[in-house]
Design brief:
The protein is an alpha/beta fold. The protein is built from 18 helices and 15 strands.
């Protein structure tokens, strides 16, 4: 789906945002961040190349005129148009795909991943890759590669069904290579993974510099997700091998990497990123848009805001609440946020857990709220229970509203909170409950923490700092390209240098 919007302006800097499952077709923290950048830079022309589910997702954000085009790349809708190549072209593509698969499964052949990937990208641009991967030859190649003597995956005795499954997953994951990549300006991937594929193709084909911003660590989240995925090990070996080598290639080729927290930096360096190409740029909020929340509710309440998703670990939050309620019977837990399509079963599981623990009357799923500030004001303490985060908006928004917080120690949470909130290990209901009880029983400490949290946001995490930093990057990257020196980004409180990771 191609959605034309405003007209291009001669001389304006051009940025193509590369997204996956977020802006402009979905709500959530990364989408908020994208909208902040776009709305905050009316002097920049933006295109959006959005990896979506089916391609039928509606736009849910109001786009300003300087967003000149939105293109949707559906992973699970109709396949890209085109025919499988024949003759010598088919043989060359089969050879490239065999080298690609070998790199995924043989640690000694990983150097062949990037050349094979760009060969596949050229086939995708010609319209032949998807059709080839839906054919018998691709399945036979995978069966042949993973049954080679000496490969660990052979021990699991891969089946034909495994080959069909893994090949289908790769075909869908590689579909973004079929979309025409940007030919000028800056390609800004706002996550790792498949969203970066058109950016890599743009760099390889047209020399367009690639900027990568990871809010969460995409590769880590794939590892977490595939732990419980209903696939046999041979399938997981192929797919996770692809995501790992794609992450490494993206880290190596990006002109600049701007993680949203210093925690992500460790993964990026281990994945092959040059430390000199990494600069931490924190998310920011407008303190005027998130003023102090005012009086606390009359009934003791814990509040939570976000999307209802397993990665937010609401089940352990509910278990922690059960422990809190055993000490303070009148307390409530209010959960604000939408349930993504396909996530209904998880929400039902959480509701069943609350009922099974005897708290159906005290745990309420409120759905999306018109004004997110109301979600923070609804609680004496704002909770964050995630098992993976980047630098979460809900946390710094709650801090700006002057609410005390209890958060899990994941991603950039500790960087955000400092000593203005309580941080506990993830997946530890007892620790979370103890922290919540500590604050619920001490109004003076809650008030002091809330005031300190708002001051911390004003001093370190404002939206203006974030926007000014990215404007500078957008304007410098096209002229400096791959050789961008680290000092191109002006020093600012929101930008952390490239020293060693702490915490």
């Amino acid at each position: 789906m191609h959605v034309p919007h405003g007209a291009r302006r001669p001389g304006a800097t051009r940025v193509t945002l590369l997204t996956e499952g977020t802006y402009p077709h979905s709500h959530g923290g990364v989408s908020v961040w994208c909208d902040q950048l776009v709305q905050g830079m009316p002097d920049i022309d933006f295109d959006v190349l959005a990896v979506t589910g089916t391609g039928r997702e509606p736009l849910v954000w109001d786009l300003p005129a300087h967003v000149t085009r939105v293109r949707s790349v559906p992973l699970w809708g109709a396949p890209p148009e085109g025919r499988a190549p024949r003759g010598r072209s088919r043989s060359r593509l089969a050879d490239a795909y065999e080298r690609f698969l070998t790199a995924l499964l043989d640690p000694c052949a990983e150097d062949g991943f990037a050349p094979a990937l760009y060969d596949l990208a050229r086939a995708a641009a010609d319209g032949g890759l998807s059709a080839f991967l839906r054919g018998d030859r691709a399945i036979a190649l995978l069966a042949s590669v993973w049954n080679r003597p000496g490969l660990a995956v052979r021990e699991a005795r891969p089946t034909v069904h495994d080959a069909l499954t893994a090949t289908a997953l790769l075909e869908h994951a590689l579909r973004p290579l079929a979309v025409p990549p940007p030919e000028s300006g800056v390609a800004h991937a706002v996550s790792g993974g498949v969203a970066a594929l058109p950016g890599l193709a743009a760099l390889e084909r047209h020399g367009v510099p690639l900027l990568l911003t990871e809010h969460g660590v995409y590769l880590r989240e794939r590892y977490l997700g595939y732990r419980t995925a209903p696939y046999r090990w041979p399938v997981k070996a192929v797919v996770l091998g692809f995501f790992r080598l794609l992450a490494e290639e993206t880290y190596r080729r990006a002109a600049l990497i701007t993680p949203g927290n210093r925690y992500n930096r460790l993964w990026e360096e281990q994945g092959g990123a040059d430390p000199e190409s990494i600069r931490t740029v924190y998310n920011g909020v407008d303190p005027a848009a998130f003023p102090p929340a005012g009086p606390e509710p009359e009934v003791l309440t814990l509040s939570w805001a976000g999307r209802v998703d397993p990665i937010k670990d609401l089940e352990n939050l509910i278990r922690a609440f059960s422990l809190v309620r055993a000490e303070l019977p009148g307390v409530r837990l209010r959960l604000f946020g939408g349930t993504p399509r396909g996530g209904e079963a998880y929400r039902e599981r959480c509701e069943a857990l609350a009922a099974g623990l005897g708290h159906a009357d005290a745990v309420t799923f409120e759905g999306r709220v018109d004004d997110i500030k109301d979600a923070y004001a609804a609680g004496h303490v704002v909770m964050l229970s995630s098992i993976s985060e980047g630098f979460p908006f809900t946390l710094i928004e709650a801090m700006s509203c002057g609410r005390a917080t209890v958060s899990t120690d994941v991603g950039g949470v500790r960087e955000a909170v400092g000593d203005t909130g309580l941080v506990v290990p993830p997946r530890d209901p007892a620790a979370m409950a103890a922290a919540a009880l500590e604050l619920l029983r001490d109004p003076a400490r809650r008030r002091a923490m809330g005031e300190a949290a708002r001051l911390r946001v004003i001093e370190q995490f404002t939206l203006r700092q974030t926007i000014d930093t990215f404007r500078s990057i957008y304007q410098e990257l096209p002229t400096l390209g791959r050789g961008l020196p680290a000092q191109v980004v002006p020093p600012a409180p929101s930008v952390t240098g490239t020293g060693s990771l702490a915490g």
